[in-house]
Amino acid sequence: MKNTLSIVFSFCVAVAFGQGRSNPAVDSLKNEADPAKLKMKLAALGNSNNENDLATVVQYYASTNQSPKGDSVIYAAAAKFPHGRYALLVAMNNFSHESDPVKQEALFAELQKTFPDKTESMEFNQAHNTMAVTFAEAKNTVKALYHLQQVKGRSNAMAIATAFLAYDPAAAEKLVKPELDRLKPTLTETAPAQGNGRGGNNNKAMYYSYEILYSKILAKQGNNAEALKYAKDAYDYFPKTTINDATKSYAYLLAVNGQYQEALPLLTQIASEGRSNAELTVQLKTAYEKVNPGKDGSAYLASVKNDLLAKVSADLGKKMTNDQSPDFRVTDVNGKKVSLADYKGKTIVLDFWATWCGPCKASFPAMQLAVNQYRNDPNVKFLFIHTWERSTTPLADAKAYIAANNYTFPLYMDVKDAKSKINPAVTAFKVPGIPSKFIIDGNGKIRFHLTGFTSGQDEANAAELAAMIEMARKGS
Predict the structure, then answer these.
(1) Residues of CATH 1.25.40 domain(s) within the chain?
(2) Could you count the other beta carbons within 10 Å of the beta carbon of residue 396?
(3) Which of 10, 27, 337, 374 is deepest in the core (most CB within 10 A)?
(4) pTM over 0.90
(5) Residue among 429, 421, 407 nearest 324 (CA)
(6) 203-313 has which fold?
(7) CATH among 3.40.30.10, 3.30.420.40, 3.30.2280.10, 3.20.20.80 for 323-475
(8) How does pLDDT run across 77-109, given as a tens digit for each residue?
(9) Using CA atoms, how far apart are residues 115 and 94, in angstroms rounded to an integer?
(10) Which residues are in the Thioredoxin domain (predicted)?
(11) Cis geometry, peptide bond prior to residue 435 (ω within 30 degrees of 0)
């Protein structure tokens, strides 16, 4: 599927083959003023039997913001040189987007057979990193650690430990504590000045990021007092200009350690900016009631949420549209087809997603908050539409992912048409990439279109979506 190679991938490919330094062949193409001659030169290079010539074409398209054309050349090069560099990169791209660790491992075995001379390459080394994370997210500690041990050089230990945290904090601690011990002696080092004249120690930010994670591990193990020490150390290091993970960890641990007076203003600030989550919301209610005996914590939470909703709503009017929605058709998990006409008079939220799409899945906690809010409202409907499948079992994959994460999403399928090889619903909406969310009013008008959410702001994202739903409802 050609749309899986995004402009980012084209750019990475171009860099891999020398875009970072001046390429006279690319410069010659960019300086060609005659369109006819340029077309001939590009065609000649594209038909060459030398893969470097096709790399020149890719670099040219990447440097002139013509990524789709570059993607086409990438696929052509991969087909023409099945054991070449582009074939490897395309195969690695497909491998990295596979969300099932067992299938991913099978793809890796095929890569080893197809590219035996590349098994010591950077790409293969990174593949072990990728599999370690995928197995960790699938709660397979043994396999995750096996692939982690195969990594040469810097590993993705933080991502793996973060995944372990949810189900195996002891394994997470075994990864994080050595990193803290390794980095701590370097905190006093001064890095050489950069090109902008500023120096810095990158190990510091890494060290304190590991401290945040370590505080979460200790808290998960019930050692809240010790966890607070690490959280405070990290909180003192990071800037206070924005709410970050250090702020949230420190505020949470202040509360669970009974330091409510100190926790309350931080927890309130976090909630007011929409950066809260279920755990922090519980602690905010508790802290408020402890600091203000006899007062209703639930009422306080409601006032903070209403203030956030008002703040979010104030800016949404400028983003509202009035475009007619395509008459889409999708299928539910039982095979029943539904269309736009089935939702006449209702406000609907369409969420195009896929199991391989990281940003799609990152938006789901906020989407679950919104689903919960409108669960009993018969006039608001959510359709989570799985599209752009990369496996032969998309329905099973999607159902498994939703079930494994305890989401209560109404699942629909936009599967590829057997003849046209396109996914009809997502194509009808002219979606360039996912996640892509549409809020459609009762008259079938698209009132809002979202391409994703800001990471780490579940409460704010859910509040924004709720405001859009209410505005769409009033406008229909």
Answers:
(1) 203-313
(2) 10
(3) 10
(4) no
(5) 429
(6) 1.25.40
(7) 3.40.30.10
(8) 999 999 999 999 889 988 987 888 999 999 999
(9) 15
(10) 319-474
(11) yes
